[in-house]
Amino acid sequence: MLMGFLDNFRRQPQEVEAASPARITAQVNPAIYDSPYSYGWGTYGFGGWNNYANSINRLNAISVPAVRQCRDLICNTIASIPLEMFSLSTGEEVLAPSWLKQPDLRASLPITIAWTVDSLLMYGQAFWRVEEIYADDNRPARFEWIQNDRISAKFTEDSSEIDYYMINGTRVPESGVGSLITFQAMDQGILLTGARTIQSAIDIERATNVASQTPQPSGYIKNNGADLPDDKVQGLLNTWKNARQNRATAYLTNTLDYVATSFSPKDMMYNEAAQFLAAQIARLCNVPAHMINAEVMRSNTYQNVLDARKEFLAYTLQPFISAIEARLSLDDLTPRGQVVRFAVDETFLRADALTRLQVVEQLLALKLITLDQAKQMEDLAPEGDGETDTPNI
């Protein structure tokens, strides 16, 4: 009932930009931290070296199992954590705008966040297009995640600044409906920084695939007799190939010998190379190797689940979480004095029930919280008005 009552007072977005100029100013076109100025690099795409120049194709990269597993661990974990809004002055949670629960009307929040993190991981930048704005302050009310390969940019003469963005070759406005909200990662994205490593993994996958499709060893047929004309040679090779594909028994005359020249996957050390590259990709993504079964030398060090999650959060997830939180907390999206945060402690780092009960018990014993506050910590309905005296324990 309370939420339904409060919904009546929510600001209503409009689909057409208001006639009055925007009063909110913040980041529009971000700085280029990897500018190719003075280096003679091309500026195909955006961000100088960033994202596209000499980088690997995303579809090829995601075909590598280690890359796919690291991507899913990072993107899907962050996407499962809800977003909340807090007051900087009091630290209390405040009523969030509707877009914070569902930025895109066509998709749920986890889907939008997962693909936003995917863009940050792969390309180093992510983009949301503004679809609706609020009439009272012109802040965005709804968004749409945009694929990175649909976006290009017009640079200044020295390629040190972005003049404007384009989607599918069409210039977008600097503010209001149709403009872009940009997210920046802490680096240039693994498609660029890990291009050689990922390409090596792709090459190993292809070599293994070729070996599995050709169980017979490759080689050449040596003719110990008179030379054959070209058409006879080609016919002999085609007959040999068709027989091997059908696993038929081969027959050669006394003047022909087959000389094998290939090595088995074991001799080529495909397995060892694939394991090494999987570990390299785990390092590239800052993902613990054991999480994708890529440890070269396994360790027996004990670590409980919560400690493992804390380590994964600090060294792997936090850069992406901070990038999204900081961008969504800027003044052009969030009113000044309020910030957006992922509910990490209440979800991903939530302790087991026994540990939480022990903490609550100690807080009650020290009279730091009331009984109603203790119930709220465990998502239980309070009985009083929050002023209930703490019982003696």
Q: Which structural class matches the secondary elements?
A: alpha+beta
General form: elongated
Compressed to H and E, one letter per element, the order equals HEHHEHHEEEEEEHHEHEHHEHH
Number of strands: 11
Helix content: 25-40%
Number of domains in the coordinates? Answer: 3
Concise overview:
The protein is of the alpha+beta class.
Write the layout of secondary structure elements.
Blueprint: H1 2-7, E1 13-14, H2 58-62, H3 65-79, E2 83-87, H4 98-101, H5 109-123, E3 125-134, E4 140-146, E5 151-155, E6 162-167, E7 170-171, E8 180-184, H6 190-193, H7 195-213, E9 219-223, H8 230-245, E10 256-260, H9 270-284, H10 305-328, E11 338-342, H11 353-365, H12 371-377
Antiparallel strand pairs: 1-3, 2-11, 3-4, 3-8, 5-6, 6-7, 9-10
Question: Characteristics of this structure?
Answer:
393 residues; alpha+beta; 3 domains; four-stranded antiparallel beta sheet; 36% helix; elongated; disordered N terminus; disordered C terminus
Q: Any overview of this molecule?
A:
The longest helix is centred in the last third of the chain and has 24 residues, at 305-328. The strands form four sheets. Strands 1, 3, 4 and 8 form a four-stranded antiparallel beta sheet that branches. Helix 3 crosses helix 5 and helix 3 packs parallel to helix 9. The chain contains twelve helices and eleven strands. It folds into three domains: 11-216 and 266-350, no CATH class; 219-261; 351-393, no CATH class. By secondary structure, it is an alpha+beta fold. Mean pLDDT is 79; it is low at 1-10, 14-26, 36-53 and 386-393. It is elongated, with a radius of gyration of 29 Å. The protein has helices at 2-7, 58-62, 65-79, 98-101, 109-123, 190-193, 195-213, 230-245, 270-284, 305-328, 353-365, 371-377, and strands spanning 13-14, 83-87, 125-134, 140-146, 151-155, 162-167, 170-171, 180-184, 219-223, 256-260, 338-342.
